[in-house]
Amino acid sequence: MTDITQIQEPEYDAILRQAVAVIDRTRAMVATAVCSAIGMTHWEIGKLLHDRKVESKHGSGVVNRLSYDLKQRYPQMGVSPRNLWDMKKFYERFCNSDSKLRQAVAVIPWGHILTLMRKFGEDDKAILYYALEITSKGWNRELLSSAISLKMHMRKDELSDNNFEQTLPATQAMFANEVFRSGYNLGFLGVKDPILETELEVRLVEKVKQFLLELGKGFTYIGNQYVLEYNGKRSKVDMLFFHRGLHCLVAIDLKIGEFKPEYAGKMNYYLSLLDRLERREDENRSIGIILCAEKDRVEVELALEDMGKPIGVADYQLIVPQEELKKIVADEMEAFDDELSRNQKSVDEIS
């Protein structure tokens, strides 16, 4: 058995991350199975009340008694009279819906279902949209309510990955939106296994020319782990650039995981330091880009809503997209065929 002290720290971190991923994936599967079982229970009880024609005018006594008796047997289960009526509404609302919608709502938490029924009534498209988002992104009730308040189902393609329009002059905001993309392909790094943020940064620095090409025209690389010292404390920006067209410093904060709201506060602080310590009088406000593996656009919009500094959030791909991969393979095969033809020609000439 290998002694833990003999394992290098990056190797151990990779083992830890993979173990956490396995546990989180299993927990998500269990949570989905539990929600599905609970949903089935609520569906069947609702169907029972519907089939027995228990109505609110004459059935309150039946439901109250049923609630009392069920509580005696299942004290931890939510079987209040109100909840029993909600189960009946749940069945009646979706019993005639198409199978895709029924399957989508069957695996989300009961509280989420009630929220969607209350907010959207008979709007199948809206309910389906949010049900799928809840399942894929694990939204809690608070995040669901925020998404609903943003009317995300109506403007899902309009949600912003940045706050440029709120923090920059109109012309510069428009230009910044043209310069910065919502996602970047870092396939040129050749990453195949789990990677640390420090290693990601090292690889980007090693291949900074390719990174500059991916970022687009106008970027000049200044440095990595750029030190900002103020009030006796040192902070370090992962990567610092200057953009000639925007005429401003651009700070990039690298994250190997999904976006978290607290990253925006950290970037806001970095930009304050840059504007105070590094920005020249003739330069525009510094801009920050948080580059992460994944992002939830609702979380991004909420996190940036009241930030005073111009910040954008972009995600990245570490694997080359399929179409680009096909082109690379085709180019390699063509180059191989050309080389093979040249070699054959040389052999023929010698013989």
UniProtKB/TrEMBL annotation:
Domain YhcG PDDEXK nuclease: 178-327
Top-level division of the source organism's lineage: Bacteria
Domain YhcG N-terminal: 21-155
Pfam families in alphabetical order: DUF1016_N, YhcG_C
Protein name (record): DUF1016 family protein
Organism per entry: Xylanibacter rodentium
